[in-house]
Amino acid sequence: MSKPEDTEKKILNKKLKDVEISIPIVYGNISFWLGKKANEYQSHKWTVYVRGATNEDLGVVIKRAVFQLHSSFNNPTRVVESPPFELSEAGWGEFEIAITLYFHSDVCDKPLNLYHHLKLYPEDESGPMSTKKPVVVESYDEIVFPEPSEGFFARVQSHPAVTLPRLPAGFTLPPPVPVEDASKRKRGDTKDHPLSQWFMNFSEADELLQLAAARQQVQAHIAKLRRQISLIDGQHQQLKSPSDQ
Amino acid sequence: MDAKDILGLPKTPLPITQEKKSQPKKDSQRKPDGISREVYALTGGLAPLMPSIDTSQLKRRPPSDEKITWQWLPFTNSARKDNLQLYHWVRVVNGVPPTGDYSFAKYNKSVDIVRYTDEEYEKYLTDPTWTKEETDQLFDLCERFDLRFIIIADRFSSSRTVEELKDRYYSVSRAILLARAPSSGDVSGHPLVKEPYNVSQEIDRKRALSMVLSQTKQQERKDAEVLAEAKRITESRMAARGVEESTLHVASNAGPEMAETATNVDGTVSPSSNAQLASVAVAPSTSVMAENASTLASLRMLRVYLRTYALEQMVQAASSTAGLRTIKRVEQILQDLGVNLKPRVPTKAVCAEHLELRKEILTLLNLQKQLQYKEAEGSSFRDGSYTEMPGTPKRSHRDQDGTFVPDSMSFGGERAGRRDQKRKGPGRLSEAPSSPAHKRPRKLKASDL
């Protein structure tokens, strides 16, 4: 089963159609009021980040993340070369942060942009500010690769950060690439992250239920309208025939 | 008139044409001479631009010096090879029957098939896959059936395809033509020489044709969407010119010709360039399905995108035919149903459900509109009975589960309110609820049916 290197490369570069790889991510910020230590220019300490939705290591897919901060920051372009992809700073202002994700070469040669509005102050302004309880704003999304290369697929097929679809019938999995010894690399997952206690939970179950219920209601209403319409059509028929001159 | 001059028609004065300019109205009452009024009316009524019927000719009888009789006479047909004699009616003038061949004989045309001699066959026309007997038979059939290859294929003794037969016939004819020609230049203009029969091309062409013919509706839709997508791509390409671009090669399933595509700035999926993509996709799609699937195709081109972006695009595509007001109503209904306008956990499944829900709400609104129209129609049937009219709109408000339908669901709150005020008729007002939220079923009256 040994193949010459060139053919193997070609095979690995082949795109898989109808196979979509998606990476569920959560991105956002956590910010702590500095309380007594706050000064005019730095009232909060905050961290902006992109993490796996289940806190798995995104380094399998993302090569580096670039956080573009407000121009008032020194070196507003912050590059993070390894997971966990996060950036901590101190400041007083809220602004939009552009996060650009660059992927490994076998994943995608195009970067992807996310936009997050940094939130420092709580919605409810009336409550007392606490240095212990942070303001947390997170958004769930999924990075979708509609036509992944076989090489990419082979590399990540058993990684927990990656969602693979049901494979089409007759599909033969390429041989899995042996994973690097995990202990050698610095851990990139966020499972034991110091801020993990504040991470929000995103479960699709609730939303699915709600959508299903809503659809049911709408469908019932549609059926009712259709009945009413056909009723009226029937009546119009009756009216038409006698009223013809 | 000038027209009559040009055509050289006799200048017999027709009452219609003379009076056309001065008294167009009177003509319709005047009976045209020469033919009955109804017949003349068949020409489209009065005053055609050019009198197409020369009415004076219509009642002309044959000149009286000719004596016409009709006789049952035998005839022969030069197109026949036997001497079959049939009989038919013949118009005899002054005792002299008409001369000449049977009038339909001239239509007996046939194709000039090149026939080869045995010598020529040995010299030029031998082929490993064809015996001489077969080739001879082919040419006989070709002559007999005037190159109708479908019939020839049917009658051919061994089972050869139409393309094989055509190939053999045309290559033999071509070879003979070339062989018999004094020089190749003489026959280079002959169609057989200029455009030889290409078997493989023909087979492919026919296969493609039959594929197109047997395409299911779904495939038609797919093709339409791919073409719409191609149009979009070319348009977005033109619009993105002048902005920093990188090129993409598009791999399409159907394989139509697609030129290189330009992506947006830095090839990123930023909201501003998303808007650009969306606004530039002006290509009108043939159907909602095509629109939907062309969005999918354009997403595939991006190579990486966010689920939320994809949902946005799909929602836009689905609502492309709806006006702003309708979209606002959809969003209102979503809110009333307790659904997030943008899903909080946009997984693939959630996004799909969300999209379907939006589409269903659009359907719902369309049906409501339909119902409105039908009821408006209904009221026009009942002429002048104002007691009925106010009743009919109420029908649609008859919602048994009052709890489900908040104001916006049923007919849009404002409309119901207006109807209430317009209501006339005895006794109904007391039943009419002032607020649309509490609709009660109205009793059907006999007059309604």
From TrEMBL, chain A:
A Pfam short name: YEATS
Keyword Membrane in annotation: no
Gene3D superfamilies cross-referenced by the UniProt entry: YEATS domain
Keyword annotations from UniProtKB, A to Z: Nucleus, Transcription, Transcription regulation
InterPro entries registered for this protein in UniProt: YEAST_sf (IPR038704), YEATS (IPR005033), YEATS_dom (IPR055129)
Subcellular location: Nucleus
Main location: nucleus
PANTHER family: PROTEIN AF-9 HOMOLOG
Protein name listed in UniProt: YEATS domain-containing protein
Organism placement in taxonomy: Eukaryota, Viridiplantae, Streptophyta, Embryophyta, Tracheophyta
Automatic annotation (TrEMBL), chain B:
Subcellular location, principal: nucleus
Region named Disordered: 1-36, 376-449
Biased composition annotated in UniProt, kind: Basic residues: 437-449
Bias (Basic and acidic residues) ranges: 18-36
Ranges for domain Myb-like: 126-175
Keywords carried by this UniProt record: Chromatin regulator, Nucleus, Transcription, Transcription regulation
One Pfam family here: DMAP1
Localization, UniProt: Nucleus
Gene3D superfamilies associated with the record: Homeodomain-like
Domain of life: Eukaryota
Entries under PANTHER family matching the protein: DNA METHYLTRANSFERASE 1-ASSOCIATED PROTEIN 1, DNA METHYLTRANSFERASE 1-ASSOCIATED PROTEIN 1 FAMILY MEMBER
Record-given protein name: Myb-like domain-containing protein
UniProt source species: Hevea brasiliensis (Para rubber tree)
Lineage, opening ranks: Eukaryota, Viridiplantae, Streptophyta, Embryophyta, Tracheophyta
